[in-house]
Specification:
The complex is a heterodimer of chains A (222) and B (243).
Chain A: H1 2-12, H2 23-55, H3 59-71, H4 74-82, H5 92-115, H6 119-127, H7 132-165, H8 175-183, H9 187-215
Helix pairs in contact in A: 1-9, 2-5, 2-7, 3-5, 4-5, 5-7, 6-7, 7-9, 8-9
Chain B: H1 2-8, H2 15-20, H3 22-56, H4 58-73, H5 76-82, H6 84-87, H7 91-115, H8 119-127, H9 132-163, H10 174-181, H11 187-215, H12 221-242
Helix pairs in contact in B: 3-4, 3-7, 3-9, 3-10, 4-7, 7-9, 8-9, 9-11, 10-11
The chains are: A mainly alpha (222), B mainly alpha (243).
Chain lengths: 222, 243
């Protein structure tokens, strides 16, 4: 209990929240790189997944990209960026790494969602004379929505986790509170930082579950 | 001579590095493999009873799946750091963290496998007088092996990758080499350790695929059936020729 008490004390100490390496600065960095990376990843992955899913092509690519993403260590990719010339480009190495790891879950889930739309429904829509874009917007997209949101959630959780690992190669974000604690043998700070990172991930996951429910096109009108 | 220089010029690929540090690379790889194997085996030993419990008693299914999903959401760096007060700087810390991650994948896959066992097979076994444990051991588990092995493969591949984060407490296998190389921007070491890590994941996946084939010979039956058929046709055509 001693360590948890110390961690709590560290968390409620005002001076730990302010300043250049304070919690607010690190949280802002974390949310900034995560948000930008998730946005870019969506812009890359979703159109590709929707197009491939609509055409029914490239299934092997969409599924394998996710398997490869799992085998590549986040830490190794970040480290490779940090020993390359990219290291002097501010947040760029982190954002590129985050995008790389957010694309696979987005792509695979959106593709599978599109392909799992009942073929009979698609045929019926075609029979009603719907054009390709109409079919996509009015039938395929609404029915694929749950899996698209699942992909978005896994991507967001992955991005938040990866952004914390960025601290291990000296990049900003909440993970820095943890690594700083390790460097000064301050277990209380390590645990406090870990609680913050874990909470952020759970809050992001929870918020996206809510967002998914609120925006659902199949939601029954109250 | 030029190979000697690649350490000085800090090239990405350096034969001299691989030669002179082969011992270091081997040790790190062995630590990596050891941590991964221990994590997946313990994960399996914990996940199996959890999945069986969730299958037998529906009211456990929700909490078990919910808890393992929450654990999976916690970022690895935070997970290892939260375990620090309990384990100190040790391999046990890294292995515990990795076990907790593998649980999500393993429990889900084993449960899916158990639920996919055909009710007819269960009924037949019960009719033959199988008790619940014998039913589980001799009918349900063998039939859910493909799903279980699929889970083990996913869990192993992601565990190999996640082990690198263990370098935060100095027990990250190849991740340690990556971290050591960062302050001096030692490119050859970062790249070699990273490539080894990916190769290790791919090799583990292939080995497990082979193991799965060995353990589930009945999934190969369709292929085996095709050959006798071809033989039969050949024999019958031979008979026609003879006749």
């Amino acid at each position: 209990m001693g360590v948890l008490g110390d961690a709590w004390t560290w968390l409620v100490t005002g001076s730990n929240w302010s300043g250049e390496g304070g919690i607010w600065t690190r949280l802002t960095e974390h949310l900034y790189v995560s948000g930008v990376a998730l946005g870019i990843a969506c812009l890359i992955a979703l159109p590709v997944a929707f197009l491939l899913g609509h055409l029914g092509k490239g299934g092997a690519l969409a599924v394998n990209v996710s398997n490869i993403g799992r085998a590549v260590p986040v830490f190794a990719v970040l480290a490779i960026f940090m020993v390359s010339p990219l290291r002097s480009a501010g947040y760029v190495p982190t954002i590129v790494a985050l995008v790389l790891f957010a694309v696979p879950p987005l792509l695979t889930n959106a593709y599978v969602g599109m392909r799992e739309v009942d073929r009979a429904v698609v045929e019926a829509a075609r029979g009603m004379g719907m054009s390709g874009p109409q079919l996509f917007l009015r039938v395929e997209l609404p029915l694929a929505y749950p899996l698209v949101m699942t992909g978005l959630r896994s991507a967001a959780v992955q991005v938040v986790a990866t952004a914390s690992i960025a601290a291990m190669v000296g990049q900003g974000g909440l993970g820095r509170i943890i690594t700083a604690g390790f460097n000064t043998y301050d277990t209380a700070q390590v645990v406090a930082g870990a609680v913050l990172v874990a909470l952020l991930a759970l809050v992001v996951e929870g918020a996206l579950v809510l967002l998914g429910r609120v925006c659902s096109p199949l939601r029954k009108s109250a | 001579m030029s190979e000697q220089n690649c350490l000085v010029t800090n090239d990405w690929i350096c034969g001299e590095y691989l030669r002179s540090r082969s011992q270091e690379l081997t040790d790190a790889t062995l630590q990596h493999v050891g941590i991964t194997v221990a994590s997946v085996l313990i994960g399996l030993a914990v996940a199996l009873p959890l999945a069986v419990l969730a299958r037998r008693h529906k009211r456990f299914a929700g909490p078990v799946l919910g808890l393992t999903t929450i654990l999976y959401t916690v970022p690895s760096l935070a997970m290892f750091s939260l375990l620090l007060p309990l384990f100190g700087l040790s391999s046990a810390l890294v292995i515990t963290g990795l076990v907790l991650y593998s649980l999500t994948i393993l429990v889900r896959n084993i449960l899916a496998g158990l639920e996919a066992v055909p009710e007819e097979a269960r009924e037949a076994a019960r009719g033959m007088g199988y008790g619940p444990w014998r039913l589980l051991w001799e009918v349900e588990l063998p039939l859910s092996l493909p799903a279980l092995m699929a889970g083990v493969r996913i869990a192993t591949v992601s565990t190999v990758a996640l082990t690198t984060v263990g370098s935060i407490v100095g027990r990250g296998g190849l991740g340690n080499l990556i971290e050591d190389a960062l302050p001096t921007f030692f490119k050859a070491q970062v790249l070699a350790a990273s490539v080894l890590c990916v190769l290790l994941a791919l090799l583990a996946d292939l080995l497990l695929l082979g193991l799965q084939r060995l353990l589930t010979p009945w999934t190969r039956v369709p292929k085996a059936r095709r050959e006798p058929l071809r033989d039969r046709i050949r024999k019958s055509s031979a008979a026609v020729e003879a006749g």
